[in-house]
Design goal:
heterodimer; A: 864 residues; alpha+beta; nine-stranded mixed beta sheet; 30 helices; elongated; B: alpha/beta; six-stranded mixed beta sheet; four-stranded antiparallel beta sheet; 7 helices
Chain lengths: 864, 225
């Protein structure tokens, strides 16, 4: 080695040099850096908001189920229905023996107060950990209906200590006395928004549930800071189940968790799908901005290579830059995420409220691990997004890289590759869509949707290049030079414009896909309502505001209504919750009298409906809903076991019917079997068929006159019930609508961001226009035409992609996640309006570049 | 017929708040007849490009007066200046500055199209005159530096501008190619008679002009012997 040659730099000093060089680059171009960071942080914020919403909703629901600070080791519930005798408590105590556990019995009811659903928990205050500290239990026991409320419930409804509050349950009204508030601990903060805590015995007496409870929790009462061993708990569970028999079910903590996991699974599956939307939109936003940031520096990279910087070192440099953006973008995203979380949490709350109780979702600040996740996501996406431009920047010859056309030559070199990738990802998408779900999680469907989006993004540059000669001819034929220039610039700069087009395509594609799904679902639901809502009047307890409730009507009330003048027929329906094959489901008993055969929604893979109905009425078997059949993997002819008060019963499945009321599924039996199997005749609701259906109003007046004023019923006409079902349907998509809105807004930001960066990168070109005598307004017109081309391309491809994604969601994801099939429906007008909205709003994104053009020194003020 | 130019005590400074003001042009006075080819010579930083940008109406001047064909240039608004540039001026740059996404034909045709003229034959004829008739469909990346500059010369002259501003037109070319470009400009100058204001470092290039003006520290100085 030449003694005069300096020693080669150490790897550490090389890395440090590139690290500082990359950071200096960011500082050198504050506008581009700021825009890039903005895009990245917004993308991160969206994902973080979804994560928070998901965590918050799950925690809220978990706390709605748990009512004690420390989770119960075991829980005892009824196998079907909800209530079981409280004499079971003595049996459990006897079975426990000296084992260090204490019992916490619970009666949970849903009641209605101030027109809202409330959760009422009847607790044994002498034993329960929920007893407010310092409160004398005798006060609780001595005051009939004395109730404690969480602070957020009191505040929300402006309730005060000492106030009386009438609440309805079933057809009765009970007055509660507010004794005070539960201290605000973490546990109580997460209780559902509307909660009453009262003494168990008062709950039983006042609400007509004498000697009944809904659950017994076993709490560890051993040495403090110790836990029972897994083996002990398992042995105890087996021993209790054996001693107590089949009239109750002993659930471990894991089984209880799987219960509400199961109940929440569909909702969380929906949220996961929406997370996918958010993730994709975020990814394209981040990838767009980062790609543009690199594309405009190709000349610099080429110069570095000419100076002797190796391709590996260039890659290191770009990775460092991506890293800076990832980390800084993630940190800013955490700040954004808090604001977005507030919006999504409100939407999530409305969605969950349609399925369960209104949750109390707190927009709490993110945990350290969630912050870390946000930064990791941002960093991860940036590093993935930098791969493509990094390869292109380091593989293209330096000379080409220095020439302006070199960029496009590089892009042209990859055209065949893009066609290949389009086909490959398209095939992978198709294959994924055929893969089965795992534990009802339609991962294949989600993967198919994701792969379809990527396939579309590869199609864009391939298609643009293939159509370039046509565009060129068109440009040459245009009379006015300004649109001709726009078209030429658009056609030639595919490596940049495809980035903006991809962003629009991905956002619109996901939005259209979901809109297609919602529209298809709504149409199917309307058809289903048309077929099933054939009665003239529907009656249920006034407090039964959700799809499932424990309140029932009485047999006497049924007979009274049946005997009312004007009534042709009354069909009864009783819905009970039940554990079937270890999963929560429903048993229904119905005075069913007909099925339709030739309808858009016939029986699924079943014999003719008349044959099925005859066999059903003769008690030869059961009917199951489509979600039930899919969930439990049952077909017509299979046998199914369900719980009754006398033990499990096994029957044959006669047919599978379409139902969209629950995703847990329903096992349907003739009403005549309700009393022998479940020991009750109480219907959950009644369907009235009138002699004169056109005189519903006068009939209702007559009915109200007949019934006692103490009986509170929810009476709806056919139209009223239809409207309510559709109202609930739309409410359940609240979080979907919120995220769709975010996706559209982010898409517009993405277009604007891309346009500004494109303009920034083309400032010398625009300066040349100025020299050639192009007026400011003509330059804006050029930008306008280019924006129109970008957005129109994006919309066209977005719609096509959206239809594909919609098909995947309707025919694959929906079926696997929820178990029901829905009919395809294309909401043409909605899609058109969405496209129009996006198109119009994207044109607003011209404001920023127009402003920059006006500011002489920034863009057009470049001196050549 | 070219544009006549007359400047009196023209001055131009650059400065940012808090930083010392830099005078680029100071008390500059000159007159250029229509059809004359004037060469501006000077070292780097002497203000040559600034002067050309002021003549083009790209940069405003701070003091003095400037008349183009007797019209006070400083009193026109931006739109009037832009339209004058479109109609009456052509530019040749050191780095060619062709549009990479337009072919040679399209680059040359653009100024004419901006002036509402679409004459395919005229464009092809001019490309032929500059020796690129066969390469009309090529893109700038497919042309050598000399060829690109010839396209730029054609682009600058297609719409028969009355004033041609050339900023170091041979600066990025080798001697032989630069000579060819200047020969071309000379030929087209004889044909169309625009006024030419050309900046250059090169004495050889300067000899093509009718007159040489030496710029030093923002002022015209007598020619060095």
């Amino acid at each position: 080695m030449d003694a005069l040659s300096p020693p080669p730099p150490s790897p550490v000093s090389t890395i440090l040099f590139f690290l500082s060089y990359s950071f200096r680059n960011l500082r050198r171009t504050p506008l581009a850096t700021a825009l890039t960071l903005f895009g990245i942080s917004l993308g991160t914020a969206i994902v973080l908001a979804i994560v928070q919403a998901d965590r918050s909703s799950l925690l809220s629901f978990k706390n709605a189920v748990n009512h004690v600070k420390n989770p119960a080791v075991l829980s005892i519930v009824a196998p079907s229905g909800t209530f079981f005798p409280d004499t079971t408590i003595d049996e459990v105590e006897g079975a426990l023996g000296p084992a260090p556990f204490r019992l916490s019995p619970l009666l949970e009811l849903t009641v209605v107060a101030k027109g809202q659903i409330f959760l009422l928990k009847g607790l044994d205050f002498l034993e329960s950990a929920d007893r407010p500290p310092g409160k004398n239990p005798r006060d609780v026991l001595s005051v009939p209906g004395g109730a404690y409320l969480p602070p957020h419930t009191l505040a929300l409804w402006h309730l005060k200590t000492g106030e009386s509050l009438p609440v309805s349950y079933g057809t009765k009204t009970v007055t509660l006395k507010i004794l005070g508030e539960i201290p605000e601990t973490l546990r109580t903060r997460m209780l559902p928004r509307n909660t009453f805590l009262i003494d168990l015995s008062w709950a039983q007496e006042l609400f007509g549930r004498n000697a009944q409870i809904t659950r017994i929790d076993l709490l560890w009462d051993g040495q403090k800071k110790t836990k029972p061993s897994h083996a002990l708990v398992t042995r105890l569970a087996q021993s209790l189940q054996k001693d107590l028999g089949k009239k109750v079910r002993v659930l471990s903590r894991k089984e209880r968790k799987s219960q509400y996991d199961s109940m929440l699974s569909a909702y969380r599956s929906n949220l996961t799908a929406l997370s996918l939307v958010a993730f994709l939109v975020a990814y394209f936003l981040i990838a767009n901005t980062l790609l543009l940031f690199v594309v405009r520096r190709r000349a610099e990279i080429a110069t570095l290579r000419l100076l002797g910087v190796t391709a590996r070192e260039i890659r290191l440099l770009l990775v460092f830059e991506a890293g800076w953006f990832g980390v800084l973008g993630g940190l800013f995203g955490i700040l954004w995420g808090q604001s977005l979380a507030t919006v999504t949490l409100r939407a999530v709350s409305r969605t969950i409220a349609t399925m369960f109780l209104p949750p109390h979702l707190l927009p709490s600040s993110t945990s350290f691990s969630e912050d870390l996740l946000a930064v990791a996501f941002s960093l991860g996406v940036c590093l993935v997004a930098i791969y493509a431009p990094l390869r292109e920047a380091t593989t293209i010859a330096p000379v080409l890289g220095l020439s302006r056309m070199g960029e496009e030559e590089g892009a042209l070199l990859g055209q065949k590759k893009f066609w290949g990738l389009f086909v490959l990802f398209g095939l992978l998408s198709f294959i994924s869509s055929r893969l089965p779900a795992v534990h009802r999680f339609p991962w294949g469907g989600y993967a198919a949707a994701l792969l379809a989006v990527f396939s579309g993004s590869f199609l864009i540059p391939a298609l643009l290049s293939a159509l370039a000669p046509l565009f060129r001819k068109l440009s040459a034929s245009l009379e006015h030079p300004v649109p001709a220039l726009s078209l030429s610039a658009f056609t030639a700069t595919t490596s940049r414009t495809r980035i903006a087009i991809s962003g629009v395509m991905a956002s619109l594609g996901m939005v259209v896909g979901i809109v297609v799904m919602i529209s298809s679902f709504e149409r199917t639901l309307n058809l289903w309502i048309d077929e099933n809502l054939t009665a003239d009047v529907y009656i249920k307890p006034a407090t039964c505001l959700s799809s499932y409730c424990t309140e029932t009507l009485t047999d006497d009330l049924y007979r009274k209504i049946k005997g009312t003048e004007g009534v042709l027929r009354v069909a009864r329906y009783t819905l009970l919750s039940a554990m079937i094959a270890g999963k929560p489901s429903y048993l229904a008993y119905s005075d069913l009298d007909r099925f339709y055969q030739k309808t858009p929604l016939p029986l699924v893979d079943s014999p003719p409906s008349s044959q099925v109905l005859r066999a059903f009425m003769e008690g030869q078997g059961v009917l199951v809903s489509e979600p039930f059949a899919n969930r439990f993997q049952k077909e017509v002819g299979d046998r199914v076991t369900y719980p009754t008060r006398k033990g499990p019963v096994t029957r044959k499945i006669l047919g599978i019917y379409r139902d969209y009321s629950t995703i847990e599924g329903i096992l349907l039996l003739p009403y005549g079997q309700l009393l022998p199997e479940q020991g009750t005749l109480a219907p959950s609701n009644l369907s009235l068929f009138l002699l004169h259906p056109d005189k519903v109003g006068s009939f209702l007046s007559r009915l109200n006159g007949t019934l006692s004023p103490d009986i509170h019923l929810l009476i709806r006409s056919q139209d009223g019930l239809r409207n309510r079902i559709l109202e609930v349907f739309h409410q359940s998509f609240s979080v979907t609508y919120a995220l769709l809105f975010i996706a559209i807004v982010v898409s517009i930001f993405g277009v604007s961001n891309s346009l500004v960066l494109l303009l920034y990168e083309r400032r010398r070109e625009f300066a040349l226009y100025r020299y050639l005598g192009l007026l400011y307004r003509e330059q804006i017109l050029m930008l306008f035409f280019e924006t129109v081309l970008i957005v129109l391309w994006g919309i066209l491809m977005g719609v096509v992609l959206g239809l594909i994604v919609g098909a995947i969601i309707v025919f694959v994801i929906n079926r696997e996640a929820f178990g029901w099939t829905i009919l395809w429906h294309l909401p043409t007008m909605n899609i058109f309006l969405l496209c129009l909205l996006l198109f119009t709003a994207s044109l607003l994104s011209l404001l920023a570049p127009a402003y920059l053009l006006r500011r002489d020194r920034t863009i057009a003020g470049e001196r050549l | 017929m070219g544009i006549s130019l007359r400047a009196e005590s023209l001055g131009k400074s650059y400065g940012r708040p808090g930083a010392p003001i830099q005078k680029v042009l100071s008390d500059l006075s000159f007159a250029i007849d229509d059809g004359e080819w004037v060469v501006i010579m000077g070292d780097s930083g002497s203000g040559k490009s600034t002067l050309l940008n002021i003549l083009a109406g790209i940069d405003p001047f701070d003091s003095g007066t400037l008349f183009l064909d007797g019209r006070p240039w400083g009193e026109l608004n931006d739109e009037e200046k832009t339209l004058t540039r479109r109609r009456d001026m052509g530019f040749i740059f050191q780095n060619y500055n062709l549009f990479p996404f337009l072919s040679a034909f399209e680059n040359v045709a653009l100024p004419a199209r901006l002036n509402g003229r679409r004459d395919r034959e005229a464009v092809l004829a001019l490309l032929g005159e500059v020796g690129l008739g066969e390469k009309a469909g090529k893109f700038p990346s497919q042309l050598s530096g000399g060829e690109q500059q010839r396209v730029a010369v054609a682009r600058a002259l297609i719409h028969r501008p009355r004033l041609l501003l050339a900023d170091e037109p041979t600066g990025a070319l080798d001697h032989l190619t630069g000579e060819r470009i200047l020969d071309l400009m000379h030929q087209l100058h004889r044909e169309f008679r625009p006024t030419i204001v050309m900046s250059t470092h090169s004495l050889d290039a300067a000899r093509y002009g009718d007159r040489i003006l030496h710029l030093r520290d923002g002022r015209f100085v007598p020619s060095p012997s």
